[in-house]
Amino acid sequence: MISQAALALQGVTCTFVSRDNRAQRYTAVENVTLSVAPGEFVSVVGPTGCGKSTLLNVGAGLLDPSTGSVHVFGQPLSGINARAGYMFQTEALMPWRTARANVMAGLEFRGASDAGARADEWLKRVGLGGFGDRYPHQLSGGMRKRTSLAQTLVLDPDIILMDEPFSALDIQTRQLMENEVLDLWAAKKKAVLFITHDLDEAIAMSDRVVILSAGPASHPIGEFVIDLPRPRDVAEVRVTPRFIDLHKAIWDVLREEVLKGYEQQKLAA
Amino acid sequence: MWSTFRPSQKTLRLWQAMVLIAVFVFWYLMTTPGLIPPIMFENDRQAAFFFGEPIKIFVRVWNWFIRDRDIYAHLWVTLLETVLAFAAGTIGGLVIGMWLALSPIAGAIFDPYIKALNSMPRVILAPIFAVWFGLGIASKVALGFTLVFFIVFFNVYQGVKEVSPTVLASARMLGATRNQLLRHVYLPSATSWVFSSLHTSVGLAFVGAVVGEYLGSSRGVGYLILQAEGSFDINTVMAGILVLTVFALVLDWAVGRVERHLMKWQPRAGETEKL
Hints:
- The complex is a heterodimer.
- By secondary structure, chain A is α/β, with parallel strands linked by helices.
- Helix content of chain A is 38%, strand content 23%.
- Chain A has two domains: 7-83 and 158-268, P-loop containing nucleotide triphosphate hydrolases (Rossmann fold); 90-156, no CATH class.
- The two termini of chain B are 42 Å apart.
- Chain B is built from 13 helices and no strands.
- The chains are: A alpha/beta, B mainly alpha.
């Protein structure tokens, strides 16, 4: 089972210790087992502050889990996950590089000789053909996200990790981007681990939705296979009866956790 | 009539020039012997002795630049000292700043010493540098270096510490090695901070050069001023100060040009660009 998965988290627990006070501990995720098969699109949803990003950072190799292990195509992961591309929630473009230079960055780091040509091709593919010489601050939010997408995908990673990549976009731009990602994914069939707090987005895009409990010490409490036919249009699929059934079934599980998370945040405040 | 000359954005330069002219006219009226009866002093030559006379100052500047052409050698020395101090201080601050910011243990060890050295009044080192490096260019460069180094050092340190964690994580995910992170993430971020302090550090390099010359040298504009002071030649002192001021303004303008060229990736306030 593990040897086949593109990305497999096994009993992962992450406990953060406060730097000022060693006794102050916070367990973000506890005993999480999660795997993504090659070509599978898996979404993780959960209430805010439940440690979704922590899981993704563990999968990326940016964060060492306190206990548990991570396997990438059967190999235990140590250090950065070189077979994964990561799309961050916040701005991750280098502000001192033009859009084109940003897309080229990963290829440059790896010493590819055709970096320029491949970057141009990807810029065109995400609809930014004429904007290569712009600096990030000269691009709109949606354009920056598309640049990030091109920056990640130009390296042709086997695993794509996405951390609420479209949460900062308006709804129209967001649906456009979601469809673009689905098209690109359908063409290449990569393993995708997609983090979101938006259940609609999760159902519309995924093969499988994993629900995390409220933090601290969050862990998966439910898993739903999304059997909606592909190809999907994220805007149209939302009004189909099957989507509504799934949404209702998942929301029944999620609602309690969302309320729990909300109560905890109110208590902490 | 008045509406065309009213202070506004259009007549800005005109009014700036008028302020300058007004200052010089006032200066001329108050100091020219015999022009108005002495108010402050006992006889009408004293104001000119203490404050100099604008006409004579301009004649002095004219003679330096046009008639005798003997200031260029001094200006060149001052410029060379400024540029060398600036370059050495910037490179030193950049290298040491990057090192201490990226190596937490080294940073922690040297932290109190860096702070101590920075709070030391550097100008008192000038005589020591004169003893160590002689009365030539080297001692002035050393003084300027101690002034520029800390400005650049603290900005680089800050710049490295403030690299966006997301950009850093992103670069690592894109496969950057440690050296590539240094070159493509830390260095550009640090340089943006260095450039924000560029005007200050060029100014301080200039101060180091002039103060160094003033305290002991055989060439440079600071030396000219010292010589004139020795013979109570107030007009030459004032002319020297005038030349230094204009020179500093030109340096500052040049730095601004370089900055605009190199920092074009940074958003500027009020810049709107329609896509």
